[in-house]
């Protein structure tokens, strides 16, 4: 396909993914909030109808009174809205993006020979196996006796996810590893909707339609998976945008620790929000511990990734600008040019072009950040050597003499 059309496909898929993702996450967050704010009705008629909780709210100039039944109403209404296409559309558009960007060009974004010498077929197979295997293991744990102990299940899941983070960062480029970790969590989330929550809800609706009492186990299972989904959400959102921040996934030798710490931070912050929803049960008080843990982890990562100050470099050992420009021309300009020569690029990534002396000198800080993180060249397609990388960094640290 023409590179220009590929750019449009990429844009439209991302736009779609963002729109449906907002719809899914917005509905999910709202219902978590709603569940935690419901109060037992005082109206005897509502109690007799089987209403277990209600809430009064005002929004957009209107008053709302949502109610939640303990199991199901005596008669299923003809108009019953189901929340599932938001989840399915988010996963389908995300997987389409994954295929377009990573599986369609594995040597560009997925494979880093300095991490693991994978063939394109091997890389794609590992990526798909991660999504499928992640769901199968997670679902099996939830269905096992361990799934009845929420705290033990959370500990085991955290350990397995940490192992997955380490494994992905050991075989893929940092960018590909972070993205696949998020895609694995996203697959678990939509798997919960497709295989557990919606089938359980269908069974409950069918039982109520027959005049039978719905099986409460379906409600319990759906509730468990919905809670998991809300704690997975912030880590997944972080992974969705991580490809824009090479200083995270490009951290040499320990990017897997960055991945684990940031995901734990996101989950902890979400725990605090959920607990805050239930503050009315504790006289308006919420322990700040989870929030402190989340912010503390982020602060620790910020400190750990802080760039080292430029090393003092003898003037005699700094390459002349002409030689630096030759290196950049050979290793960077195939992508970062007004008219990129690298297949798959219509415009320079992030609009950064290094095809003239003026453009190089204007963007030395950005060049240094990408070289230090080893995020560029992407997958080291142009085979920049460590000596060349060090030479350009030393030139910049010496003040970019020209």
Based on the model shown, name its key terms.
402 residues; mainly alpha; 2 domains; two-stranded antiparallel ribbon; two-stranded antiparallel sheet; 4 strands; 63% helix; elongated
Describe this structure in words.
The protein is mainly alpha-helical and 402 residues long. The protein contains 15 helices and four strands. The strands form two sheets. It has a two-stranded antiparallel sheet with strand order 1-4. A two-stranded antiparallel ribbon has the order 2-3. The model has no long low-confidence stretch (mean pLDDT 91). Pfam families: Urate_ox_N. Keywords: Heme, Iron, Membrane, Metal-binding, Transmembrane, Transmembrane helix. InterPro entries: Cyt_c-like_dom, Cyt_c-like_dom_sf, Urate_ox_N. One of its GO terms (molecular function) is metal ion binding.
List the helices and strands and how they pair.
Blueprint: H1 3-37, H2 44-49, E1 51-54, E2 57-59, E3 62-64, E4 67-69, H3 85-103, H4 106-109, H5 120-143, H6 150-171, H7 174-209, H8 216-241, H9 246-249, H10 255-277, H11 289-304, H12 321-331, H13 357-362, H14 364-373, H15 386-397
Antiparallel strand pairs: 1-4, 2-3
Quaternary arrangement of the chains shown?
Answer: single chain
Strands ordered across the widest β-sheet: 1-4
How does the overall form come out from the CA principal axes? elongated
The biggest sheet amounts to: 2 strands, antiparallel
- Strand fraction band? under 5%
H/E series: HHEEEEHHHHHHHHHHHHH
- SS element count, helices: 15
Would you identify the regions where 5 or more consecutive residues have pLDDT less than 50? none
Content-based structural category: mainly alpha
Got a strand count?
4
Summarize model confidence as the mean pLDDT: 91
Estimate percent helicity.
Answer: 55-70%
